[in-house]
UniProtKB/TrEMBL annotation:
<keyword id="KW-0540">Nuclease</keyword>
<protein>
    <submittedName>
        <fullName>3'-5' exonuclease</fullName>
    </submittedName>
</protein>
<dbReference type="InterPro" id="IPR036397">
    <property type="entry name" value="RNaseH_sf"/>
</dbReference>
<feature type="domain" description="Exonuclease">
    <location>
        <begin position="40"/>
        <end position="209"/>
    </location>
</feature>
<dbReference type="InterPro" id="IPR013520">
    <property type="entry name" value="Ribonucl_H"/>
</dbReference>
<dbReference type="InterPro" id="IPR012337">
    <property type="entry name" value="RNaseH-like_sf"/>
</dbReference>
<dbReference type="GO" id="GO:0004527">
    <property type="term" value="F:exonuclease activity"/>
</dbReference>
<keyword id="KW-0378">Hydrolase</keyword>
<dbReference type="Pfam" id="PF00929">
    <property type="entry name" value="RNase_T"/>
</dbReference>
<keyword id="KW-0269">Exonuclease</keyword>
């Protein structure tokens, strides 16, 4: 294995093997009209050193795969990243100790492994905007890679598809309780990803009942829902 690092312009210094793997990463597949049950989707959750998307770092990545309308428990992703920042309160929240962070994978290796796992699939997360910004920044800093995969926010899909729940700005715990999901562990990336995936499957079932049986249809309905919400907020 070559340890030689290549300087990539203004980007990070990467080993030759990392450059080769980055070049082989699959581009995101365009959203299409295939039924939801035929989609391959990757549900992820990040644990971070804080909530500042410009300064804090990704500490761990957990992800599960939805394929053929079911969660593939045999194919999950979990990785802790090494971090050069003081952990602070994140140790108490995530249970990530300084020793586990010190023993974590180097960010470039962990992020490459995750993107290889994700492939060309769309990504789902709860409060996806935060995960998307954190992941995009980490990929740019560590790999010089621009994230263009589409993200769907389960926290948006839930009130869109289940307005009768009257849960406004609810968290993952609120929606899990609403649907009677068992949450055995929280603030752990892979466990949170699994709960989010279970919630997503329930919401996809609701979507099919509303004749929204594709990612294209969901994206279009979400766009209209966001416009109405913005107009309502401006009118207040």
């Amino acid at each position: 294995m070559s340890q030689f690092r290549w300087l990539t312009g203004r980007g990070p210094a990467l080993r030759a093997e990392h450059l080769e793997r980055r070049a082989r990463l699959a581009p995101p597949a365009p959203l299409d009209a295939r039924p939801l049950a035929e989609q391959r989707l990757v549900v992820l959750d990040l644990e971070t050193s804080g909530l500042d998307t410009k300064r804090d770092q990704v500490l761990s990545i957990g992800a599960v795969l939805i394929e053929s309308g079911a969660i593939d428990l045999a194919r999950q992703f979990e990785c802790t990243l090494s971090c050069d920042q003081p952990l602070g309160a994140s140790v108490l929240i995530h249970g990530l100790t300084p020793s586990s962070i010190a023993a974590g994978s180097e960010p470039a290796e962990a992020l490459l492994a995750f993107m290889e796992f994700a492939g060309s699939s769309p990504l789902l997360a709860f409060h996806a905007a935060f995960d998307q910004r954190m992941l995009a920044r980490a990929l740019k800093q560590s790999l010089g890679y621009r994230l263009t995969h589409p993200f769907f926010d389960v926290a948006e899909l839930a009130p869109l598809l289940c307005p009768q729940a009257t849960i406004r700005r609810g968290g993952l715990d609120d929606w899990a309780r609403h649907f009677g999901l068992q949450v055995h562990q929280r603030h752990h990336a892979s466990a949170d990803a699994l709960v989010t995936a279970e919630l997503a499957l329930i919401l996809f079932s609701q979507a099919r009942r509303q004749r929204l049986d594709s990612l294209q249809a969901l994206q279009q309905r979400l766009a209209g829902w966001r416009r109405r919400r913005r107009a309502h907020q401006l009118a207040l």
